[in-house]
């Protein structure tokens, strides 16, 4: 079966123009991911600022072109879609932004962002049918049409504006939502509501979700798969329970150890906490990108980048501490987690 969306060995390099070939930034390095049409899945992409999360989102949405590799929508290169394929892509793959206010034109009522796709994609038989569809979508995300429609964006809370955008994705019958930090700019009291709404879209309507965040806690709450990015490369990938409760990569351990817990008796790990990370400058780095921060660094870490070693059936880590395990392609790990989730185990 053809995948809904697929990234195949995607690399993205910024800089390195005709007059400045030395100052290059490797934002994403040999990244692969397949989102199948069925079963619907929730995959979290986690990492610090500069890890390549936003670059990945832009590549998956066709807003940027890979330096190497391909992004495919239903088997077709995303940069070379026909008019009909592009129309289908814009309907089936929806984006939820970090700041919901930026999506809205302040001169239009919020009705505009819902009525426009109804008209553009011919979703309704009549004006009354369109209003009915909009009301059903709003109700599905916990909003009441009579309390939402007819208002300007500034008259809604941040959580309401974000849920209107989720309703828009549901309205156009999206197959995949790319959610880029969707709860980072709403009150903590509303985060659980939005996360529950996204989970409900996945379970009830069969919508897959790519959840991009720097927050390991919310990633654990919502996702089945987790991909931990560090400086554009995958550090750990697989089942979220395994990766968070028993992390195998030193970087994932540091991320987990930095999560504050309401336990005054808790003894924090003595490993160095993560410093500010940025994407790698200079694409000729030969070793592990985490070597300069890793408390377990070995000579081999500085000479050759580690492959993903399959430490468990549903998890892999790019670390030479696990070189006794066989190497594996990232996609195989993600697909094994999806298969288990679909079987209900």
Q: Could you explain the architecture of this structure?
A:
The protein has 345 residues and is of the alpha/beta class. The protein has eleven helices and 13 strands. The strands form two sheets. It has an eight-stranded mixed sheet, sandwiched between helices. A hairpin with a 2-residue loop joins β1 and β2. α3 runs parallel beside α6 and α4 crosses α6. The longest helix is centred in the middle third of the chain and has 18 residues. The relative contact order is 0.15. About 4% of the residues have low confidence.
Quick structural summary:
The protein is an alpha/beta fold and 345 residues long. The protein has helices at residues 53-60, 83-92, 111-120, 127-140, 145-148, 158-171, 188-205, 216-222, 240-245, 250-257, 330-343, and strands at 5-17, 20-35, 42-46, 68-73, 76-77, 93-96, 176-180, 208-213, 225-230, 233-239, 280-281, 309-312, 315-317.
Count of helical regions: 11
What distance lies between the first and last C-alpha atoms, to the nearest angstrom? 23 Å
Strand content: 15-25%
Fraction in helix? 25-40%
Mean pLDDT, nearest integer?
Answer: 86
Structural class category: alpha/beta
Number of strands: 13
Fold topology:
Elements: E1 5-17, E2 20-35, E3 42-46, H1 53-60, E4 68-73, E5 76-77, H2 83-92, E6 93-96, H3 111-120, H4 127-140, H5 145-148, H6 158-171, E7 176-180, H7 188-205, E8 208-213, H8 216-222, E9 225-230, E10 233-239, H9 240-245, H10 250-257, E11 280-281, E12 309-312, E13 315-317, H11 330-343
């Amino acid at each position: 079966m053809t995948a809904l969306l697929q990234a195949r060995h995607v690399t993205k390099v910024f800089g390195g123009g005709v007059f400045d070939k030395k100052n290059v930034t490797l934002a994403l390095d040999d990244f692969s991911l397949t989102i199948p049409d069925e079963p619907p899945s929730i995959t979290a992409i986690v990492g610090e600022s500069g890890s390549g999360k936003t670059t990945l989102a832009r590549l998956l949405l066709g807003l940027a072109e890979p330096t190497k590799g391909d992004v495919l929508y239903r088997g077709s290169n995303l940069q070379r879609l026909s008019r009909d394929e592009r129309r289908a892509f814009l309907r089936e793959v929806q984006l939820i932004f970090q700041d919901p206010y930026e999506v809205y034109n302040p001169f239009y009522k919020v009705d505009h962002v819902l009525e426009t796709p109804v008209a553009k994609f011919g979703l309704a038989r009549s004006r009354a049918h369109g209003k009915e569809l909009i009301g059903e979508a709003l109700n599905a995300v916990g909003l009441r049409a009579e309390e939402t429609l007819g208002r300007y964006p500034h008259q809604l809370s941040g959580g309401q504006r974000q849920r209107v955008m989720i309703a828009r994705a549901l309205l156009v019958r999206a197959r995949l939502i790319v959610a880029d930090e969707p709860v980072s700019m709403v009150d903590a009291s509303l985060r659980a509501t939005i996360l529950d709404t996204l989970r409900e879209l996945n379970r009830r309507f069969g919508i897959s979700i790519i959840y991009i965040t720097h927050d390991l806690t919310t990633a654990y709450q919502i996702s089945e798969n987790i991909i931990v990015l560090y400086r554009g490369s995958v550090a750990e990938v697989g089942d979220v329970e395994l990766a968070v409760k028993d992390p195998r990569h030193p970087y994932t351990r540091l991320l987990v150890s930095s999560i504050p817990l309401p336990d005054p008796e808790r003894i924090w790990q003595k490993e160095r906490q993560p410093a500010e990370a940025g994407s790698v400058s200079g694409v000729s780095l030969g070793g592990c990108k985490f070597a300069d921060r890793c408390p377990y660094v070995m000579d081999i870490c500085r000479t050759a980048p580690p492959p993903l070693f399959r430490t468990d059936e549903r998890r892999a880590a790019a670390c030479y501490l696990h070189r006794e395990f066989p190497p594996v392609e990232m996609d195989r790990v993600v697909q094994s987690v999806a298969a288990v989730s679909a079987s209900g185990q």
